[in-house]
Amino acid sequence: MSLSGKDKTVVKAFWDKVSPKTAEMGGEALGRMLTAYPQTKTYFSHWSDLSPDSAQVKKHGATIMGAIGDAVSKIDDLTGSLSKLSELHAFKLRVDPANFRILAHNIILVLAMYFPNEFTPEVHVSVDKFLQNLALALSEKYR
Amino acid sequence: MVKWTDFECATIQDIFSKIDYDVVGPAALSRCLIVYPWTQRYFGGFGNLYKAAAITSNPKVAAHGKVVIAGLEKAVKNMDDIKTTYKDLSVLHSEKLQVDPDNFNLLADCLTVVVAGQMGAAFTPEGHAAFQKFLAVVVASLRKQYN
Predict the structure, then answer these.
(1) Does the keyword Isomerase apply (chain B) (predicted)?
(2) Of B6, B43, B82, B132, which is the most exposed, with the fewest CB atoms less than 10 Å away?
(3) Per-residue pLDDT tens over the stretch B70-94
(4) What is the pTM for the complete model shown?
């Protein structure tokens, strides 16, 4: 399900709109994932506080969203631009790629919470496709 | 046997008392048909589903969205034994409607997104976790009679 020209335009325009809030939303999305999908906590056992209010969670959520925002700007070559991050996730972190879908769902949920009027079904489908392609690019180096 | 904490029970009742069924049901179903277009295969008799705008304004989609959420309410009212409550619905979806059960998760995800959009910050992470568990039980119960 590759990204059409329209998908790319929609994602870029929407990300422009929401960029002031992306750091906060990232923390929110990660916190929710750890709370609603407790199996994901296994990847963060080295943190002392995994609650949604945790400073570590908020900071890391912001980092993740920053990387996603960067991917938006390089939307024409996700595989190339995510190559280093893919190596990190494949060889060092060894996150099961099924979890990328779980985090994507939580990001989408938070986008809907913060921007209910802008996150229409049409925007939702393009963002969902984008995150799916991003996950694919992130899984590239796994095997 | 699914065990619910007092918090989970109270939260599910609370969320369902706060959402507007006539808005959430149709919105969740239409979002599912738009975001995951292959789910349209089950709605051949619904007329025009060619574009997002057509789906959102389709009266059959809206009516069916309300049917779906009324079905969910049955689970809300019988949280102690959703499996038995949904036995007939499970048979219906597997034998008559022949819905691929993986689609239940897609609709569940869309419902969660719509509820979050409606409730905003009131849809707390802990409430979200309870809602997620509830939907997982609903989906498992609907899958139960498939073989």
Answers:
(1) no
(2) B6
(3) 999 999 999 999 999 999 999 999 8
(4) 0.87
